[in-house]
Structure formats: C-alpha cells, structure tokens
Amino acid sequence: MCSLLPHMRASNVVFLIAGLCLAPAVAGPAAHTGDQGVRIELRLNKPAYTATEPVEIMLMLSNPTSTAATFQFPTGQMFDFLVTRQGKLIWQWSYGRAFTQAFTRLTLSPGESRVFNERWDQRDVQGRYVPAGEYEMLAVFPTDVGLVPRAGADGPQVRFQIVN
After folding, report:
1. Where do the TM regions start and end (predicted)?
2. Domain limits, the chain
3. Are strands 157-163 and 48-50 parallel, antiparallel or unpaired?
4. Where are the beta strands (DSSP E) in 13-132?
C-alpha cells in the first residue's frame, strides 16, 4: 500500500523526483540516487500532463543491503518536492505545511521498501495555475539540521511537460 510520510532529512542528500504508486499506462520520467546503501527513486506517472491535471509523484526508498539503515530528521518532515522552471522555484510541497518540531527517525530493515505518494495540482506557491511548458521536479531527503531545500540544489531531477 502506498503511504505518505511528510518529514524531512537534511544530510545534503538531495533526493528524487516524482512518481506514482498506481500502475501507469505510460511510464513517466524517473531518477534515482542513494544514501547509506538505500536506493532513493523518484518517479512521475507520465512525461506530459494537460493543464490543471494533477501530477502524481512517487518517492520510493529501498534498502537492498543486509543491514538496517536509519535516518534521523530534525523535524517531522522526511522529504520535500520542488518544481522549478528555468531555474526558478514554482512550487514546494512543504510550503505552508506544519511539521512536528521533534527529531524523527526512519529505519529501513534489510530488503524493506517505503513508498510515499503525493500529488501536485499544478498551482504555484501563490495558488495560480502554471502555464504550459517544461518543468523540473526535484526531491530532497534532508537529515542534517539546518539544510533548507532549495531550487538549484544538487540531486536527481526529472523533467516533464505541461501542455494545453
């Protein structure tokens, strides 16, 4: 089952981009990276969306190693998604959300995977629908205290289109 765990980790490990837990008819763009042997995959359900159509995002953490991997987060937020266009921040998943102000831990046992699903409604941070064009999505998995997810951060990104 797909679940969403809104939390954040800051070890300057910038993570993945969008995806979907449902079986898409057309596979969308995907990117992956790793931290502590854990594979971090971000995937969108398709490469192009019509205007105002929700963008389905999937972030999957998989531990293929023989040892448990534990991540500590400075708050209750474990990840973030950022949408940019031509290097400019358009939308940030965590914008306007409240998170517990307590350290949070995530442990993946050997062979364990966790899937986090989210959806972007194609509105910018001011609540306006974005115009057609090419966009990038970035996922951030921060664990160090003080890291602020930002546009232009290093890490896997996927590109996708919004068309009229």
Report:
1. none
2. 30-163
3. parallel
4. 30-35, 38-44, 48-50, 55-62, 69-73, 80-85, 88-92, 104-108, 113-120
Find where tokens 């609540």 sit. 127
**CATH T-level assignment (fold) for domain 30-163:** Immunoglobulin-like (2.60.40)
One-letter amino acid for residue 40 of the chain: I
Residues 141, 78 contacting (CB under 8 angstroms): yes
Contact 18, 43 (CB under 8 A): yes
Among residues 50, 78, 79, the alpha carbon closest in space to that of 140 is found at 79
pTM of the model: 0.75
Q: Residues near 158 by Cβ (< 8 Å), separated by ≥ 6? A: 17, 18, 28, 29, 30, 31, 42, 43, 44, 136, 137
